[in-house]
Every structure is written in structure tokens, then in C-alpha cells.
Design brief:
The protein has 158 residues and is mainly α. 63% of the residues lie in helices and 6% in strands.
């Protein structure tokens, strides 16, 4: 039993120290910080002018109050409704979250697009370097070092 626990501990240690797990952890932490930035951007910068353009609407204050005993009570704000203990559907907050998600998704799209472009550039440069280091054997069409005088595949003189 003790051997099994020790083996399990070693397996977990190997798993936890593996680079991909550490990379994933760093990604999660940075993603959480990025989420706060996007939330602040949506709530504090984007939504106030958008609400103003749409007729001074505060999206975070859009809600529906569910009836209690068949009566619908109106409140001046979402905070007042929550303070009174009313059951509300906060669709304005949902709109804010959807806009935040769209901005986050677009930012991730731009990031991935730029990384892919960089990868293509690096791959093209590697291919160019590889082509200058190699030549094609005219007899067997194998890729060989440019300095070779004899093909290692078909033993033809070059």
C-alpha cells in the first residue's frame, strides 16, 4: 500500500512539473488578470458612452422584477430591488458580460492571428536556410548537403 502511494506521488510530481502544466497554470493566471482588464474596459469605458448614445441607458441597471403574490413592484434601481429582496432577472448585466466576452474573444483572435503570422515567417526563414544548406541529387532526387561530392543515397558522383 505504501509503495502504491509513493508511486502515485512520483507520478503526480512528474505530471505537475511537466512544462505543459506549468504553461497552462501561467496561462490561467494571465487569463484571469486579462478578464479583469476586459471587465473594467466594458463596464467603465465602453458601456457608459454606448448607453449615452442609446438615450442615457445604463445597461447594468436593466432588469425585470418577478411578481410576488401576483403583484409587480417597481424599484428605482437594481440595487434598490436587491436591497428589498426582490427576485430579478438582470438582463443588463448579461448584456455587459456578452459584450465583454465578444471583446475578449476578438482580442484572443488577434493574438492567435499574430502568433500564426509570426510562425509562418519563422517557418519560411527556416525553409530558406534549409534550401541554402542542401541541394538535390540529379540522379536520385534526394536532398543532400550542398558540400557533398558524392550522394549518400545513390553513391553517384556529383
Amino acid at each position: 500500500m505504501l509503495c502504491k502511494l509513493k508511486s502515485l506521488g512520483n507520478e503526480f510530481k512528474t505530471f505537475a512539473i511537466r512544462g505543459s502544466v506549468i504553461d497552462m497554470s501561467v496561462g490561467i493566471v494571465i487569463g484571469a488578470a486579462f478578464t479583469k482588464i476586459v471587465d473594467s474596459f466594458v463596464t467603465d469605458i465602453l458601456m457608459p458612452p454606448l448607453g449615452w448614445i442609446m438615450g442615457k441607458v445604463d445597461f447594468s441597471n436593466l432588469y425585470l422584477t418577478l411578481p410576488v403574490d401576483g403583484k409587480i413592484v417597481t424599484y428605482p434601481s437594481l440595487e434598490a430591488a436587491k436591497t428589498a429582496g426582490a427576485v430579478t432577472i438582470n438582463y443588463g448585466l448579461f448584456i455587459n458580460v456578452c459584450i465583454g466576452f465578444a471583446i475578449t474573444a476578438f482580442a484572443v483572435f488577434l493574438l492567435i492571428k499574430s502568433i500564426n503570422k509570426l510562425r509562418c515567417t519563422v517557418a519560411r526563414e527556416e525553409t530558406t536556410v534549409e534550401e541554402t544548406k542542401n541541394k538535390i541529387c540529379p540522379h536520385c532526387f534526394s536532398s543532400i548537403d550542398i558540400r557533398a561530392t558524392k550522394c549518400p543515397f545513390c553513391t553517384s558522383d556529383l
